Amino acid sequence: MCDICGVTPCDCRCPNATQKAVYICTECGEPICEDDWYWDSDDGPICERCMGEMNREQILYLCGQPLKKAEWEIEWRN
């Protein structure tokens, strides 16, 4: 068992790890290891932890669908 991460084999986030990260999260810069859940956004992979910390508005923005403000539309007639 590793003295740093406490796992065998080491987690890819551990400095003693031989396994490399599959991706790097574009939000926090942390490694995304094999079997980790992530979102493959247009801007790059985002780890599950970062996704869980985002509110709905942030997620919609990342999807290219920001919230819209409701406004009356004036229809002009001749």
Automatic annotation (TrEMBL):
This is Uncharacterized protein.
